[in-house]
Amino acid sequence: MPYTAIAWPLVTLLVAVIFVAQDLVFQILDVANLVGPIAYRITAWTVATSAIVLLLLPPRRLAYAVGFVVCGGLIAWALYLQYGRDIYPCPLCIFQRVAVIATGVVFLAAAVHGPGRSGAIVYAVLTFITAGTGAGLAAWQVWIQAQPKGSVAACGMGLDYMLETLPLTDVVARVLQGSGECADQGWVLLGLAIAAWTFVFFVAMIVAAIALVRRD
């Protein structure tokens, strides 16, 4: 008797719903450990967003164009928070913006190119590099934000000042160390701060780029 193929996007969406339910239990029980609930919440939304992307993934060229629009939307929202809500980005946030812009450039080039399967592999690798770097930076900032108050170093020099006075390698090292302004969550939606949502979108973009290798 033949078996139908497993609809993995639907399965992962179901798993995400389970994670959300577990996170609600953590909140109801008022768990003291902050890292646990945040990890569950980020995992749930990452899995759910990636599953939705796989379920709605359009043909290859259109998908790249949509990816570019999503990156543009993320930058537009970041600028709104900065200039409309006075939530100024920390150096780590600025680095993540650069990663979003770089990923958007990759998607735009892919949309213009309209690659075949071999080209899609190249763009998937490039997306993995740009979005993967951004996801790593976002995850690091989430970890900084999860630390107890007072355990993170005080606010440091602004990025513009560091770029004017320090070698680039020192600037990168100082930014990656994190400081007080990086621990400020700022805008929060559904229990996740900006860095956490940025991580979710970076992972979803990587998943989409990999899936497009087989999407004609």
Which structural traits does this protein have?
two-stranded antiparallel sheet; 216 residues; mainly alpha; 2 strands; 2% strand
Question: In words, what does this structure look like?
Answer:
The structure is a single chain. The chain is mostly helical and 216 residues long. It is 72% helix and 2% strand. It has helices at 8-29, 35-56, 60-83, 91-113, 117-145, 159-165, 168-177, 194-211, and strands spanning 188-189, 192-193. Strands 1-2 form a two-stranded antiparallel sheet. It is globular, with a radius of gyration of 19 Å. The two termini are 30 Å apart.
On the 0 to 100 scale, the average pLDDT is 78
Low-confidence stretches: none
Class by SSE composition = mainly alpha
- Share in helix: over 70%
Secondary-structure element string: HHHHHHHEEH
**Multimeric state:** single chain
Measure the end-to-end span: 30 Å
Beta-strand residue percentage: under 5%
Coarse shape: globular
Count of helical segments? 8
Counted beta strands:
2
How do you describe this structure in short?
The protein is built from eight helices and two strands; from the N terminus they run αααααααββα. The chain is mostly helical.
Topology readout:
Blueprint: H1 8-29, H2 35-56, H3 60-83, H4 91-113, H5 117-145, H6 159-165, H7 168-177, E1 188-189, E2 192-193, H8 194-211
Helix pairs in contact: 1-2, 2-8, 3-4, 3-8, 4-5, 5-8
